[in-house]
């Protein structure tokens, strides 16, 4: 993965002399040399205008995970905390492979560890009211070759009954970064009950970073997702 470097370019301007020559005393114009102190000031000014980032992908991955873990997938974070997560995600984006949809690392089992919009993964089960009745345990996404996606949310209903909502969908590649998943009607399991409800749904997601540990995605409505590979 390439590292982005910023360089400051000094532009030298030339002023053309007029055709009519003006005679001036030899000491009328003085060229003042740039002192070492002034040079340091100029260099410091350029450095402040274009700072260099020395962050490495591994450090950024560790940073974003430390910010989202133990936060109920982002629900417990403040607005300022969400901004900090977004900042690290933008830094990681510069290290993303050129065509992440073709990267084999996309396949596997992933934990949904963060979403900037808590109702995006899990729908109404993750709304403010839904979380009163349904306590999410695991949120897992499985991506299987060549084009199968399965989402599963396991929960506890009122602390007494275990349940699970699952969706299976087909992955369609839209371009080198964007995918669309068309899901079948969700299936709900609570205790011994099992049934389908609703209809088909579709989501679009841009893969902004992927490696052996995490995958970042940006939904078509601006929701940021952080997926961590299951061990």
Automatic annotation (TrEMBL):
It holds the Pfam family PAP_fibrillin. It is found in: Plastid. The keyword Transit peptide applies. It comes from Cinchona calisaya. It comes from the Eukaryota. InterPro entries: PAP, PAP/fibrillin_dom. PANTHER family: PLASTID-LIPID-ASSOCIATED PROTEIN 4, CHLOROPLASTIC-RELATED. This is Plastid lipid-associated protein/fibrillin conserved domain-containing protein.
